[in-house]
TrEMBL record:
PROSITE patterns: MFS. It comes from the Bacteria. One of its GO terms (cellular component) is plasma membrane. It is found in: Cell membrane. One of its GO terms (molecular function) is transmembrane transporter activity. The keyword Iron-sulfur does not apply. It is a multi-pass membrane protein. The keyword Lipid biosynthesis does not apply. Keywords: Cell membrane, Membrane, Transmembrane, Transmembrane helix, Transport. The chain crosses the membrane at residues 12-35, 47-65, 77-99, 105-124, 136-156, 162-185, 197-216, 228-247, 268-289, 295-314, 326-347, 353-374, 428-448. This is Major facilitator transporter. Residues 10-452 form the Major facilitator superfamily (MFS) profile domain.
């Protein structure tokens, strides 16, 4: 087998694994009403089926990235896949609410090991290769469009089989990916033997947990409740303490050098803002299509397919053509602005709007723009870092995506609830999402280093040094 063919097999394996992780952010949302009716839990408990996953995933990503550096990304990938499949099987079998929530939390734990391992493997496999842009374009398409696929798949499985198959499907996917991983992935390499930064690990896990919990619970408890304010304050305080520890310890969990890169640091911030808008759109538009326009779950999922296709097109074009030729600033700035325009278009939806004229154009614009953003920023997440830090650098971009999604959903949900009337609530949410992507465009245009008339390798070196 040629080296080039082997690289593409690695891409297929890690992209499918990333698809599993992204699917779980939306596929269970479609299944929730059926699961609630089957297991008999109340509306107040329903959010924990979603929150349990995001809490475990978001809080443990950095720790998962460092474990991959310590024990090898191949080992982390296979262990993460196996554990994720086992947790999914437990959730699909769940006889009651408590087991379902525990299974969702376990999914998040193993996803926190799997997601950074996948990106780390991709980064090291295609580093310095002429196909690097294409590979990250594909990966960015999965990261940006997988949520839309989850909505469709969740609707089909719930309607045709059972809500339980929204979890069982991961077992099938994982079995196929594990089989491919054993032959496609390179030999396991432990890239660092440094001692564990226990203080930093404890602080960042607790801080991210409190932060995600605070934003998630704000939808139910409100922003002024002591629980919300206390959780957010605790999370911010712990993360500030984490920062102090990292700049003073000899073996930090998150080396400050990773964040000092102008290109990487900007990409992390852009990802935070883009994810806030993207995941919010999945939530609010899915509700609008079903509650207001009367779409079935399956039809609502089909309605998101044009967006998934446009994300793939935008991501592929960005990674394969735009970034190698123009540098990262132009595609990310333009893509963010185009996505913002798509969200602005969606502020025109009404109670009796036609999908083709009121929704589809906005979906296509947002999808193309978000694809360009994800295809570009994912490629720069671990660019230029030494192999010993590839896992933690990959985990950082996944963390910003997860935190951005949690913050965006919480803020825009409250903004929607504050509006007068259902349609006005959707309008407010899309205005907020447009603001997030506009901010991403400004950040990208101002903070990314300017492009230079050099080769791709030389330009990347200069960006890492700036």
């Amino acid at each position: 087998m040629t080296v080039q063919r082997q690289r593409w097999r690695v891409l297929v394996v890690v992209a499918l694994a990333q698809l599993m992780v992204v699917l779980d952010a939306t596929i269970v949302n479609i299944a929730l009403p059926a699961a609630q009716a089957d297991l008999g839990f109340g509306d107040a408990d329903r959010q924990w089926v979603v929150t349990a996953y995001s809490l475990a995933f978001g809080s443990l990503l950095l720790a998962g990235g460092r474990l991959n550096d310590r024990f090898g990304a191949r080992t982390g990938f296979i262990v993460g896949l196996t554990g994720f499949a086992a947790a999914s099987a437990l959730g699909g079998w769940a006889p009651g609410f408590a087991v379902l929530v525990a299974a969702r939390a376990a999914q998040g734990v193993f996803a926190a090991l799997l997601a950074p391992a996948a990106l780390s493997l991709l980064s090291t496999t295609f580093r310095g290769n002429g196909d690097e842009g294409r590979a990250f374009g594909v990966y960015g398409a999965v990261a940006g469009g997988g949520g839309a696929i989850g909505l469709l798949l969740g609707g089909v499985l719930t309607d045709v089989l059972s809500w339980r198959w929204c979890l069982f499907v991961n077992v099938v996917l994982a079995a196929a990916v594990i089989a491919g991983a054993r032959t496609a992935l390179p030999a396991n390499v432990r890239t660092t033997a440094q001692r564990t930064d226990w203080w930093g690990t404890g602080l960042v896990v607790a801080g991210l947990f409190a932060l995600v919990l605070g934003f998630g619970r704000s939808e139910v408890l409100g922003w002024t409740s002591p629980e919300t304010l206390g959780s957010l304050a605790l999370g911010l305080g712990l993360l500030v303490a984490f920062g102090f520890v990292e700049v003073r310890t000899a073996t930090p969990l998150l080396p400050p050098s990773i964040l000092r890169s102008r290109t990487r640091g900007t990409s992390y911030l852009v990802m935070l803002l883009a994810a806030a808008g993207m995941f919010s759109m999945y939530l609010f538009l899915a509700y609008y299509l079903q509650r207001t326009l009367g779409f079935s779950p399956v039809l609502a999922g089909v309605a998101f397919l044009p967006m998934a296709v446009s994300v793939a097109v935008g991501s592929a074009a960005s990674g394969a053509a735009l970034v190698p030729r123009f540098g990262i600033r132009l595609p990310v700035t333009t893509g963010s602005a185009l996505a913002a325009a798509g969200f602005l278009y969606l502020t025109g939806i009404g109670a009796e709007a036609a999908y083709a004229s009121a929704v589809l154009p906005g979906l296509l614009m947002a999808g193309l723009g978000l694809g360009a953003v994800f295809g570009s920023t994912m490629g720069s997440a671990a660019a230029g870092v030494p192999p010993a830090q590839a896992g933690i650098a990959s985990a950082t971009v996944n963390t910003t995506q997860q935190i951005g999604g949690s913050v965006g959903i919480a803020l825009l949900t409250n903004l929607s609830l504050a509006a007068s009337g259902e349609i006005a609530g959707y309008h407010a949410a899309f205005w907020g999402a447009a603001a997030a992507l506009t901010a991403a465009a400004v950040v990208a245009g101002v903070l990314y280093p300017p492009p230079s008339r050099t080769t791709t390798a030389e330009r990347r070196y200069q960006e890492e040094k700036s």
